[in-house]
Amino acid sequence: MRLDVWADTGLLVALDLVNRLHPDASGGVAALADVLAVDPPSAAHLTARDLPGFAELAGELRAVLDNLRAGDEDSAAVRLNTLLSAYPAHPHLAREEGRWRLHHHPAETSLVPMWSAICAEALARFLAGGHASRVGACEARGCGRLFVDTSRNRIRRFCSTACQDRVKTAAARRRGAARNAQR
Ligand SMILES: [Zn+2]
């Protein structure tokens, strides 16, 4: 499985929202702006008023991803269907700078409903594509960030190389200490 930065934007944003806004949104609007930087118009329209709505969305997406990680596709599907009906998308063509573009929301849609729809649809496609078991959580102590394992053998254990290196270094230190203790 390969993630495409455009086609899978909703999935990547969903993971980012969960990792950065849940359980606490202490990173504030700056963290949210980082997450939405994949879509410059969204980042440009973002205000502090959007934060509570995104934090709530992050909580709902977290519940979906936790269901998937636990192998409970049924509960994840019920949650996603609730989101999909609360935030419907309306595909339509709009002319922009001389060419037709496909949009899924009217131009005046505010950010939270729009991203709720995008993230819910992306996770629904992910579930329907049979990828549910690819949701993982970082094993580094104190991390727990969620990720989608795109490796062929599904062997990913860490959210980032930073966490992987941290765990490797700690393990090496433990081995060194054990050797010294044996002397
Ligand atoms: Zn990590």
Summarize this, please?
With 183 residues, this protein is mainly alpha-helical.
Based on Cα principal axes, name the global outline.
elongated
The CATH architecture of the domain at 9-131 can be named as Orthogonal Bundle
Topology as a string of helices (H) and strands (E): HHHHHEEHEEH
CATH superfamily placement of the domain at 9-131: Jann2411-like domain
Ranges where pLDDT stays below 50 over 5 or more residues in a row are none
CATH class of the domain at 9-131: Mainly Alpha
Please explain how this structure is put together.
There is one protein chain. This protein has a domain at 9-131: Jann2411-like domain (Jann2411-like fold, Orthogonal Bundle), CATH 1.10.3300.10. Helix content is 55%, strand content 9%. The chain has helices at residues 9-21, 28-35, 40-45, 51-69, 73-86, 111-128, 161-182; strands at 92-96, 99-103, 135-137, 146-148. α1 (9-21) runs antiparallel to α2, α1 crosses α4 (51-69) and α5 (73-86) packs antiparallel against α6 (111-128). The longest helix is centred in the last third of the chain and has 22 residues, at 161-182. The protein is elongated and about 75 Å long. The relative contact order is 0.13. The structure holds zinc ion (ZN). The site of zinc ion has 8 residues, from loops.
